[in-house]
Amino acid sequence: MNIQGNTYTFIYSSVMVIVVAAALAFTAIQLQPYQENNIKVEKMQNILASVGEVTTPENAETKYKEIIVKEFIINEKGETIEGNAFNVDLKNEMKKKVEERKFPIYQALKDGKNYFVIPLRGKGLWGPIWGYVSLEEDLNTIHGAVFDHKGETPGLGAEISTAEFRNQFIGKKIFKADTVASIKVYKGGKNAAINAGDTEYGVDAVSGGTITSKGLEAMMLTNLSDYENYFKNNKK
Questions:
Q1: Beta strand 184-186 with 202-204: parallel, antiparallel or unpaired?
Q2: What is the DSSP letter of 173?
Q3: I need a labelling partner for 50 at 20 to 30 A (CA). Which of 17, 32, 39, 173 fits?
């Protein structure tokens, strides 16, 4: 065969494409279990971080089994239903009608106190944002929170994942009277919430990340409101 001809070039290119595609597919299949495990471990770390437990990938699963004493699912009426809470995909659940959704809750026991961890998912400026918020036994006071994002701008919206931002949520309330009001995010720099006279429900927005901050505010209100019936029925 003429190696300078078009036929040879076409056959050679086709063979190389098939070989490379097969190699990539094989590699992806081999790596899939490791990727799934990494996602699982990261989720455990985030849940634990919301109750103030710092872990490593190596000890996350052990700590999770020690601290998370119960996983369960509720419906929009606040009733416990069957299912594996850890495997609930919030992204898929949010596509369903509210009456068809599953809402997972993780109960943690740390230093003799119970905390209830609620997963969150919403939309930032450039893509999805998510996180976990832990509530004290009164199901009204925030004990801790963690947030993350897919593509927010470094130094701006991406700051929602920093300790400085999330620590503002500690001690804030989510109920006003008998309704979930969640958290109000105030723009205007540091102490904007204090200057607005809102020390119980307000936090400062990320500087230069107003849209992401407001997306996080909406995420918390929307997601926590889904649990309102459960909170009302069980809060102390």
A1: parallel
A2: B
A3: 32
Mean pLDDT by 10 residues, the chain (236 residues): 66 83 77 78 97 95 97 96 95 93 97 97 94 97 96 89 95 94 89 91 91 95 96 87
Whether 50 and 132 have beta carbons less than 8 Å apart is answered as yes
Residue carrying the six token digits 């872990």: 55
CA–CA separation, 15 and 31 (whole Å): 24
73 and 82 in contact (C-beta within 8 Å)?
A: yes
Q: What is the pLDDT of residue 13?
A: 81
Distance CA 68, CA 81 (A): 19
Shortest CA distance to 103 belongs to which of 114, 92, 118, 116? Answer: 118
pTM for this structure? Answer: 0.84
Residue 148 DSSP class: E
Question: CA-CA distances (angstroms) from residue 153 to 35, 110, 180, 200?
Answer: 25, 35, 30, 29
Q: Phi/psi at 157 (nearest 5 deg)?
A: -60, -30
Backbone angles phi, psi at 156, to 5 degrees: -125, -105
Whether 160 and 206 have beta carbons less than 8 Å apart is answered as yes
